[in-house]
């Protein structure tokens, strides 16, 4: 946001509660006459100029007190999208009659033939005060629970952190079910400027069709057709394959027939039932100071690669259940250890004893990369006691 010159405030949920509560919190954090543009994060819009014009038009309609949604012109009887029925087709601004969740193929075909149905883009606009009024009318219990959660939030710098114990009392429900299916006087603006829901590997592979052999690794396909491969570094070879999507990550591999990627959710559910960490965790995480990658996680040690961005510093902290050994492999690191300040060049290393107060930083204009080896009885991120933190966590 700094690069765009936009001042942002972040609303962070310690546990997710679906789209309706998130929208309520955004409206509550806004001034009453602010116009909210509510967009999923996993969509692709090709014609930005056309979309910008549609948003400007939508803002004018929102000023009159209406909700606005953007309908995508349906080109085939897709069963992976929700549908919006309007009163009359062909209007620049149409009146919404109904919202329908993902239909079966026969129903989707009947919608396409009727001509007055659009794909539901999941993009909405509304004035903040109108949004809150809608929740008070249609979801009073949700609004009351969300208000209590908002009042007890943790405020840090440019962040409002909504706490898990309070969030768990807020109903988890989508805005479609909570509001849109109950709300009167919704306006729909048709949009056909190159939209795609990239929430599945099917849709993402279509967008990346020009790179059909994938990215991020060496791919060799023999006697294969209509195959999309995305690798993470290893060489991937396929023989006699057809109509497949193959995603090879560093901690899991997905192989799925094209047209069936919606069933990935079932795989995730089974992995979570089996308590597999791969279902909820990735091998890397971003932090305000940079990122870390897990290279090895065993019963006796854990190895990470830390990348500290220029000018950034980790918190001054200590651990109850582990010691650490740092090796600088790139850049010049600044280290605090029990009151002593040290500078370590590439190739230098240092031991961090159990319970020692320590901090890692980067006072240069180049990234610093450190290999961290943790030794002890427990390696969880919750074994971090922060003495001081530049990010007020």
Describe the structure.
With 393 residues, the protein is of the alpha+beta class. It folds into three domains: 10-197, Spore Coat Polysaccharide Biosynthesis Protein SpsA, Chain A (Alpha-Beta Complex); 211-271, no CATH class; 284-388, Sandwich (Jelly Rolls). The protein is 22% helix and 37% strand. The protein has helices at 19-28, 48-62, 105-114, 128-138, 140-151, 164-167, 175-180, 201-207, 264-273, and strands spanning 10-13, 35-38, 43-45, 67-73, 83-86, 94-100, 117-127, 154-156, 159-162, 186-191, 195-197, 219-222, 225-230, 236-239, 242-248, 253-257, 284-287, 290-297, 301-308, 316-318, 322-330, 333-337, 340-344, 349-352, 358-361, 368-376, 385-388. α1 crosses α4, α1 packs across α5 and α4 (128-138) packs across α5 (140-151). The protein is globular. The protein starts with 9 loop residues before the first strand and ends in a 5-residue tail after the last strand.
Percent strand:
35-45%
Radius of gyration: 25 Å
Uncertain segments are: 211-216
Assembly annotation: single chain
Number of domains: 3
User: Looking at this structure, what is the CATH superfamily of the largest domain?
Assistant: Spore Coat Polysaccharide Biosynthesis Protein SpsA, Chain A
CATH topology grouping of the largest domain = Spore Coat Polysaccharide Biosynthesis Protein SpsA, Chain A
The count of strands amounts to: 27
Major pleated sheet? 6 strands, antiparallel
Q: How far apart lie the N and C ends?
A: 20 Å
Tell me the overall shape.
Answer: globular
Count the helices. How many? 9
* Share of helical residues: 10-25%
Average pLDDT confidence is 90
Structural class: alpha+beta
């Amino acid at each position: 946001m700094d690069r765009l010159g936009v001042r942002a405030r972040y609303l962070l949920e310690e546990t997710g509660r679906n789209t309706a509560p998130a929208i309520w919190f955004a409206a509550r954090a806004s001034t009453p006459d602010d116009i909210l543009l509510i967009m999923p994060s996993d969509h692709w819009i090709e014609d930005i100029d056309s979309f910008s014009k549609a948003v400007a038009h939508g803002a004018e309609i929102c000023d009159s007190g209406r909700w606005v949604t953007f309908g995508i012109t349906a080109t085939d009887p897709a069963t992976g999208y929700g549908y919006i029925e309007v009163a009359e087709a062909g209007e620049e601004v149409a009146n919404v009659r109904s919202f329908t969740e993902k239909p079966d193929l026969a129903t989707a075909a009947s919608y396409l033939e009727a001509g007055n149905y659009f794909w539901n883009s999941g993009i909405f606009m509304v004035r903040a005060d109108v949004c809150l009024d809608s929740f008070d009318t249609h979801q009073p219990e949700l609004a009351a629970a969300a208000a209590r959660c908002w009042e007890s939030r943790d405020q840090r710098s440019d962040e409002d952190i909504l706490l898990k114990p309070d969030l768990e009392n807020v109903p988890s429900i989508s805005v479609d079910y909570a509001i849109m299916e109950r709300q009167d006087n919704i306006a729909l603006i048709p949009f056909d400027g190159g939209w795609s829901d990239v929430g599945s590997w099917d849709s993402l592979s279509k967008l990346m069709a020009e790179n059909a052999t994938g990215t991020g690794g060496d791919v060799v396909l023999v006697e294969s057709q209509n195959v999309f491969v995305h690798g993470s570094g290893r060489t991937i070879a396929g023989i006699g394959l057809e109509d497949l999507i193959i995603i090879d990550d560093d901690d899991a591999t997905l192989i799925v027939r094209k047209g069936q990627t919606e069933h990935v959710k079932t795989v995730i559910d089974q992995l979570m039932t089996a308590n597999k960490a791969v279902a909820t965790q990735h091998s890397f995480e971003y932090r305000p100071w940079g990122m870390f990658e897990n290279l090895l996680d065993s019963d006796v040690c854990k190895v990470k690669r830390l990348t500290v961005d220029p000018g950034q510093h980790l918190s001054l902290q200590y651990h109850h259940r582990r010691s650490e050994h740092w090796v600088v492999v790139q850049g010049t690191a600044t280290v605090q250890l029990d009151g002593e300040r040290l500078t370590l060049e590439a190739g230098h290393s240092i031991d961090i004893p159990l319970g020692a107060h320590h901090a890692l930083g980067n006072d240069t204009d180049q990234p610093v990369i450190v290999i961290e080896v943790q030794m002890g009885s427990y390696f969880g991120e919750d074994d971090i006691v922060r003495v001081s933190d530049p990010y007020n966590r």
